[in-house]
Design a protein that fits this description.
The complex is a heterotrimer of chains A (about 280), B (about 400) and C (about 475).
Chain A lengths: L1 H37 L19 H8 L6 H32 L5 H11 L8 H10 L6 H10 L6 H8 L3 H9 L4 H9 L4 H17 L3 H6 L8 H8 L5 H38 L3
Helix pairs in contact in A: 1-13, 2-13, 3-6, 3-7, 3-10, 7-13, 8-9, 10-13, 12-13
Chain B lengths: L1 H13 L1 H4 L17 E8 L4 H14 L4 E8 L5 H7 L7 E5 L3 H6 L10 H7 L2 H6 L1 E2 L2 E2 L2 E4 L5 E5 L11 H10 L3 E3 L5 H10 L4 E3 L5 E3 L4 H15 L3 E2 L3 H9 L3 E6 L4 H8 L3 E4 L3 E4 L2 E4 L2 E3 L2 E5 L6 H11 L2 H11 L6 H4 L2 H5 L1 H10 L2 E3 L8 H12 L7 H13 L3
Helix pairs in contact in B: 9-10, 9-18, 18-19
Chain C lengths: L1 H29 L2 H6 L5 H4 L4 H28 L9 E5 L4 E5 L4 H37 L7 H9 L3 H27 L21 H9 L1 H37 L6 H13 L2 H11 L5 H9 L12 H30 L2 H9 L4 H29 L2 H7 L18 H10 L4 H25 L1 H4 L6
Antiparallel strand pairs in C: 1-2
Classes of the chains: A mainly alpha (about 280), B alpha/beta (about 400), C mainly alpha (about 475).
């Protein structure tokens, strides 16, 4: 009886291994293709076959050294600066907002939460023109600062997950601290925050990603100022009609270079990401 | 009350910090005295930056009487209109754009009329390029190149000079040697050649909407020809990258495209590289020569510029004969300047010669509005997908209805 | 029940408002000279009664507001009714041989800064009432000989009992500047004729009432039929993109988390890798790969699996399936990550019990796992659904909305409302129509999700601890 159960389980697991392997192939396939393209020597944009006929490192070398037309290293630096700044700002804003909605009780709490809920439903890029002119009015366009503001400006609206996480921390802990004379400010920084490592890392991770992938907002804000582009917009220039033939393989190389740090970050932080979103997402 | 408002307005003007944002200051300080610095920005495509910089340097050298601060920024001709309209106040003073944007730019009030030295500009450039830079007989831009049109590249080892006169012969021959003829039919720009060739007309109505007669009897003939072409086994479609890859691996024997792919195709075909005008197609009434859109690139002066006179002088310089020759020599761009285009070197260029051959059948793209492209693409896409659930007449009726729909 | 409480709240708010108005005059009458002066000079009542910093802050607000109104605010608000009257003109300059262009009004900027000025005015009025009521309260406290909060006290309050003000002020300011203000600007645009023929800098646009709405909903058959067709497809898309991703993502997570499956983190990492590649790269690659003569079709042809190329992106129906499937590739890893932790929270004894009853794993999934997950993650699902309705990236990068179709007006078969709207702005510069569509989507979504969200148990239970 037990043996047959075991056999059944082994068969079941074998079946799952097969499925997982197949799925992994499907998922890794485009990634592998991207990597192969980045090492392809044949210059053109499009090949009707998957595996390059000749291999080379030149795409990477050119990308990093030939900066006269596409200044990839600079764009990478810009993105890194923006990503770090905006992830710090976003994290602070999100955590404070979440804390307020989770822990504090005030008159406007529920109306504010409802307003925030519906605000997220208007297509974002429609407001770009307005945002651009607002930034222009305060003399901030075409600067990295404005980009940080744009990425973090609406960030507080994504407080749900963090609030869900805070909700799982028993309120008794706060009460105990407050009886000891701690202010709410102290409760947040000294008690809640140290207990919230997963959600802090989750927030940092998600907000760090945005500048690397956005190409719409940055194009409206930076316009013709090439020196202030981020990698995403910069890479996009490489596949415009006039450039795609010559630069497609370099575009792939650039994409791989973006993906590497993000992948490493994700692998390293996966544990926290999962536990952060688990506790937070469970209550939304 | 009015007085009060005037006072308010005046005080508002004084506060530069606050008025800066709407840039509503009229451009009346047109730096006539030598001491003011002339600040200009020029938009050129990324490929042309280096070349344009050289021209600008030469311009500054030739005009030492003023202090210049001329910067270049990257905005390609196809994106100029979109980028301009995002915020005219920070757009370049002198910018390059493709002539199909002229109508929109003029009606948006984006361009200065070209009046200084206008007679000379009109005289030294080809009539087609001047027409493409004009609206209602008023010149609005400086013609720069005359090569933004399409024609046909082919493989000499597959087709003879005789073959390439007829689309039908080409398709038969290509099918026989297991090769393809490429034309991007799901693209309003290319597909128009069938309709325009058979007498179709695109024009702008007095209400500034698109007028189009592609659904008349002649238009249906053209539509049927497109249908047959797309259904042929030797037909293939795709964008530029498919096209270039096709020539490289020998699958494609002929393709409709323009000068921007000439270099790549020449490298791929080597000695078999050839180019000519578009072929003719067959209708029940006989042979019809394919038409095309003649495209030009031109320089416009931003209506918001602070230095219109200087900007005009610069644009004039950037498009003069000497610099059009330089454009051809550095990048192979076909000149709109009459003298430059008559030079031996230009005449010997295979692609430009083919373009010149095609140009007698070409139609200016100025009268095409934004509403044309989507429905035309949709018709082409239906033909490519061999979706015959509706007749050609029905599809064309719907296409024309959408193209001409009032806003 | 709900409705009743809503109306009660509404009537409370209205009566509260009138009471406040009445108090405003009553307090002025009862107030001493300092209070009366502070009706005209903000912060005077604070300044004279030991709240120096607060008083100066109020005064600064008042001076700043007056300065702003004189320099530009009055002008912008006065221009709101017309959105500009002076069109760009030109004058022939004989000496220079040019038509000098005279800059006209820019309707778009007038609208934006008009809205901005009104915002500031509302904010100022709020501050004004705060300062007036503060002045009167201070007077009362003084008369009763009670303690008036010093600056230090205020700071302490802001870090404790009024901590929410400290914490939320910056997020609120940023949200107003970068979300609400632009939103109102866009909403107002729907009531104008801002399109290609009324475009700055050369032309003015102005108010035209609600005709854009009637055009899109019924008056203009071409627009309205396209609108409803795209709305239908958008909902289908959002449904599949949300629930298929959700269910398959959970299944994947279950498989990886199953007892006896080794190298769990390896499997997870493989799927996570795809998150790390920016969507604009992976989706563009996919669109190349899926071309009629692309690498995938060639591979399948060469292997002899298919005889004719599959029109992944060119046949309307196939293309719709393709975008949904490719979206699975994009979305499943996220769902997997997000749900795998929650899955482990499901009490093991639930499964034990059903196993004894002889339930198969499939039955367990639908009887235990899915209901539990649905219960716990409803808010997540709502946000996902809304996100997918506005999912710009996948469609825009993969198909660009194509294949274009004559059944639709200036749109393709896979276009969502949001990508159609994008096309209308970039290709046709029809901002008015685009905003109108945006508003309709917005109203639809917000009413659906507000109702669902407030009905979910997760929210109802939430207030219990306080």
């Amino acid at each position: 009886m037990i043996k047959s159960m075991k056999a059944k389980r082994t068969i079941g697991n074998a079946f799952i291994y097969v499925i997982l392997t197949l799925l992994s192939i499907v998922w890794v396939f485009p990634v592998a293709w991207l990597v192969m393209q980045s090492f392809r020597k044949e210059g053109s944009a499009f090949t009707p076959y998957f595996i390059p006929k000749q291999w080379t490192f030149d795409n990477y070398i050119n990308l990093l050294t030939d900066t006269s037309k596409f200044n990839f290293p600079r764009w990478f630096g810009n993105t890194l600066v923006v990503a770090i700044a905006s992830c710090i700002l976003t994290t602070v804003l999100v955590l404070l907002t979440a804390y307020a909605f989770s822990r504090l009780r005030f008159k406007m709490r529920r109306p504010m939460m409802n307003v925030i809920l519906i605000l997220g439903m208007f297509p974002g890029f429609m407001s770009m023109i307005a945002i651009y002119h607002i930034l222009k009015a305060i003399n901030l366009t075409q600067s990295l600062v404005s980009l940080v503001l744009v990425y973090s400006g609406g960030a507080a609206m994504g407080y749900y997950i963090a609030k869900g996480f805070f909700d799982t921390i028993p309120y008794a802990i706060d009460e105990a601290a407050m009886i000891d004379g701690a202010t709410k400010n102290q409760v947040f920084w000294k008690i809640i925050l140290p207990m919230s490592k997963p959600i802090v890392i989750y927030t940092i991770l998600t907000s760090f990603l945005t500048p690397w992938v956005d190409f719409i907002f940055v194009s409206v804000i930076m316009k013709d100022n090439y020196d202030k582009y981020t990698v995403a917009l910069g890479l996009f220039q490489m596949i415009s009609r006039e450039n795609v033939q010559k630069y497609f393989t370099q575009f792939c190389a650039g994409a791989v270079l973006i993906a590497i740090p993000i992948t490493l970050l994700f692998i390293k932080m996966q544990k926290y990401y999962v536990s952060g979103v688990t506790a937070g997402g469970a209550k939304g | 009350m009015k007085k009060l408002l005037a006072v308010l307005l005046a005080s508002m003007m004084m506060l530069t910090a606050c008025t800066k944002k709407n840039d509503s200051k009229p451009a009346d300080d047109m730096g006539q005295d030598a001491n003011t610095k002339v600040t200009l920005k020029v938009w050129a495509s990324q490929d042309d930056q280096e070349m344009t910089q050289k021209m600008v340097d030469a311009f500054i050298e030739a005009h030492p009487e003023k202090q210049w601060d001329i910067t270049l920024a990257v905005v390609g001709e196809p994106d100029a209109k979109t980028k301009y309209l995002e915020d005219p106040a920070v757009a370049a003073d002198v910018f390059a754009f493709a002539n199909d944007q002229l109508n929109d730019l003029v009606s948006a009030g984006a361009l200065y009329k070209v009046t200084r030295n206008a007679d000379d500009i009109k005289a030294r450039n080809s009539a087609g390029s001047v027409g493409a830079a004009s609206k209602d007989d008023q010149l609005y831009a400086y013609p720069m190149t005359a090569d933004n049109g399409y024609f046909m590249f082919y493989d000499k080892s597959v087709f003879t000079e005789e073959d390439v006169l007829s689309l039908d012969v080409m398709l038969e021959k290509a099918a026989a040697s297991n090769k393809k003829v490429l034309m991007d039919l799901s693209n309003g720009w290319y597909i128009a050649s069938f309709f325009l060739g058979n007498g179709g007309k695109l024009s702008i109505s007095p209400e500034n909407t698109q007028a189009c007669d592609f659904n008349n009897e002649k238009g249906v003939q053209a539509g049927e020809a497109i249908k047959n072409f797309a259904a042929h086994s030797a037909f293939t479609t795709g964008d530029d990258s498919v096209l270039v890859a096709g020539f490289e691996n020998g699958e494609i024997a002929a393709a409709v495209t323009g000068t921007w792919n000439a270099e790549k195709i020449q490298t791929a075909l080597k000695d078999n590289y050839a180019a000519t005008k578009l072929p003719s197609y067959t209708t029940t009434d006989g042979l019809v020569q394919l038409s095309s859109f003649a495209g030009y690139k031109q320089l416009g002066i931003n209506s918001q510029t602070k230095f219109p006179v200087e900007a005009m002088d610069l644009a004039d310089w950037l498009t003069n004969e000497q610099n059009q020759v330089l454009r051809f020599e550095t990048k192979g761009y076909g000149p709109s300047n009459l003298n430059a285009s008559q030079s031996d070197a230009v005449q010997a260029n295979v692609a430009l010669a083919a373009l010149a051959l095609q140009s007698q059948f070409a139609v200016s793209q100025n009268d095409v509005l934004g509403s044309y492209w989507g429905p035309a693409e949709a018709f082409g896409a239906a033909m490519e997908a061999k979706d015959y659930s509706k007749t050609v007449q029905e599809l064309l009726d719907e296409m024309v209805a959408q193209i001409t729909a009032a806003k | 029940m709900k409705l009743q409480s809503f109306f009660k709240k509404l009537s409370d708010a209205v009566s509260g408002f009138f009471a406040a108005c009445a108090n405003y005059f009553v307090h002025f009458k009862k107030g001493d000279i300092i209070t009366k002066i502070s009706y005209f000079i903000m912060g005077f009542g604070c300044f004279c009664r030991k709240q120096v910093v607060k008083g100066l802050a109020y005064l600064a607000i008042q001076l700043g507001y007056i300065y702003f109104m004189i320099t530009s605010g009055v002008y912008y608000i006065s221009m709101l009714s017309t959105l500009g009257t002076m069109q760009q003109g030109e004058v022939w300059d004989e000496a220079l041989q040019i038509y000098r262009i005279q800059t006209g009004h820019n309707s778009m900027l007038l609208l934006l800064f008009g809205v901005f000025s009104i915002f500031l005015t509302i904010l100022f009025i709020a501050f004004y009432f705060m300062s007036v009521s503060r002045a009167y309260k201070n007077q009362l406290l003084m008369e009763q000989g009670k303690h008036i909060n010093s600056f230090k006290d205020d700071v302490r309050d802001l870090l404790d009992s009024k901590y929410h003000i400290t914490v939320l002020s910056i997020p609120v300011i940023l949200t107003v500047a970068f979300t609400i203000l632009p939103l109102i600007f866009m909403i107002l645009m729907a009531f104008t004729n801002f399109d290609q023929t009324h475009q700055p800098p050369g032309n003015l646009f102005t108010w035209i009432g609600t005709s854009n709405f009637s055009k899109i909903l019924y008056q203009n058959p071409r627009w309205s039929s396209t609108f409803f067709k795209l709305l239908f497809w958008t909902i289908i898309w959002a449904f599949f993109a949300t629930f298929l991703n959700y269910i398959l993502g959970i299944m994947l997570a279950i498989m990886i988390n199953k007892k006896g499956i080794r190298i769990k983190s390896f499997w997870r990492t493989i799927f996570v890798t795809t998150i790390a590649i920016p969507q604009f790269v992976s989706l563009l690659l996919m669109s190349r790969m899926l071309l009629d003569n692309g690498a995938l079709n060639n591979l399948l042809l060469n292997l002899g699996i298919i005889k004719e190329a599959i029109p992944f992106l060119t046949n309307p129906n196939v293309a719709k399936v393709t975008v949904i499937i490719v979206n699975l590739w994009v979305g499943i890893p996220y769902t997997m990550l997000i749900t795998s932790g929650i899955l482990m929270n499901i009490p093991e004894d639930l499964y034990e019990a059903s196993r004894i009853d002889g339930a198969t794993p499939v039955k367990q999934f639908f009887a235990i796992t899915l209901p539990y997950m649905l219960h716990v993650t409803t808010p997540y699902l709502i946000t996902q659904f809304v996100g997918n309705i506005n999912n710009f990236n996948v469609i825009f990068l993969l198909t660009g909305g194509g294949p274009q179709s004559l059944n639709l007006y200036q749109a393709g078969e896979t276009d969502l409302l949001v990508t159609w709207l994008y096309k209308l702005t970039t290709q046709e510069q029809n901002y008015a129509l685009a905003s109108t569509i945006g508003i309709v989507i917005f109203m639809l979504l917000s009413s659906i999700s507000l109702i669902t969200y407030n009905m979910t148990s997760a929210v109802k239970e939430e207030d219990t601890f306080s």
